[in-house]
Amino acid sequence: MSFHAILLEESEGKVTGSVTELPDDCLPDGDVTVRVDYSSLNYKDGLILKGLARLVRTYPHIPGIDLSGIVQASESADFSPGDRVLLTGWGLGERHWGGFSQVARVKSGWLVNAPEGLSNRQAMSIGTAGFTAMISVMALEEAGLEKSGGPVLVTGASGGVGSVAVAILAHLGYDVTASTGKEGEHDYLSAMGASNVMGRLESSGRPLDKGQWAGCVDTVGGTTLVSALTQMHPHASIAVCGNAGGNDLNATVLPLILRGVNLLGIDSVMYPTAPRQTAWRRLASDLPVDKLEAMTEVISLDQTFAASEKILMGGVRGRTVIDVNA
Ligand code: NDP
């Protein structure tokens, strides 16, 4: 038996990839074999396809940090052939062969049963990006975010994490301000539920500005995060989940020590299993399906290379699903 996958190879420090036919017996170790239906494109996949950030250390490699599919064979008591499953994180597509493939062999402990109310395609429309948006919102709620507190800011709003965060927060009844660098996406973000759409944050250079935000989901990092920090209400929190605009954090501690602002670190990769199930259940209920469809484009494995170039340029709107069997 054989299957198709994107295979990355490295030669003299340069990473190249192509859709390749591979035999089943080359799959890595794992106790569950999944017939993959869909994967999705995330910013990290863009980095991996270009061989950037040293996220992959061993080649040849199958990328794809997300997958959904049907269990084909299982040595685990927790999963049986025919089960509908999904997987995000745990090093899939980084340390372990991933979801840009018609078949994947993985560890059962990484798998989640697909929640009722979400198809496999919808689950990948959410993917790591949407999951990260959900756990960011959950972190803000746990830190005391309240609907009566005022506007909640989402940065990098037209991207995958940002779009889903806007849609979830709006559906939950929060007053959402979407910050985007793309003037052409204002109508899109209003349709996702933002009550206000603004440009990218600009720094005033002051350590504290007027407090405007009751909470923030920051997907950008760098100077955007520094600016957001200076504009938070007292005791408000920022879910710090992305670095699309840079890794540096050249801020002062004044918002933290004079306003009690909290920086909440968000890591979707090693997020524990029990709250992971909760987050997926909440995604099935807190993210309206019509908004999910409106933010999703479906592409084939062949089209993934061009899309990955685009996501690294900040040029992808919403979420990109990969139909690995197209
Ligand atoms: P996308 O590329 O879909 O979205 C990122 C958005 O950030 C862009 O659409 C753009 O939005 C904005 N942006 C891009 N470049 C810049 C820049 N130089 N300055 C300011 N804004 C910029 O990526 P994702 O939504 O998939 O991921 C967003 C971030 O979250 C990434 O850094 C990713 O690595 C991280 N991430 C982290 C996870 C975790 O576990 N912590 C999991 C998933 C993602 P706009 O034009 O609207 O401003």
Characterization of the model:
- The chain is globular and about 65 Å long.
- It has helices spanning 43-49, 120-142, 160-172, 186-191, 222-230, 254-259, 273-286, 289-294, 304-312, and strands at residues 2-11, 14-23, 32-41, 66-74, 84-88, 103-106, 112-113, 152-155, 176-179, 196-198, 213-218, 232-240, 262-265, 296-300, 319-323.
- The mean pLDDT is 97.
- The protein is α/β, with parallel strands linked by helices and 326 residues long.
- The strands form three sheets. Strands 3, 4, 5, 6, 7, 14 and 15 form a seven-stranded mixed β-sheet that branches. It has a six-stranded parallel β-sheet with strand order 10-9-8-11-12-13, sandwiched between helices. Strands 1-2 form a two-stranded antiparallel ribbon.
- It starts with a strand and ends with a strand.
- It is 29% helix and 28% strand.
- Bound molecules: NADPH dihydro-nicotinamide-adenine-dinucleotide phosphate (NDP).
- NADPH dihydro-nicotinamide-adenine-dinucleotide phosphate binds at residues 42-44, 128-129, 132, 156-162, 180-182, 200, 219-220, 224, 241-245, 266-269, 311, 314, 316.
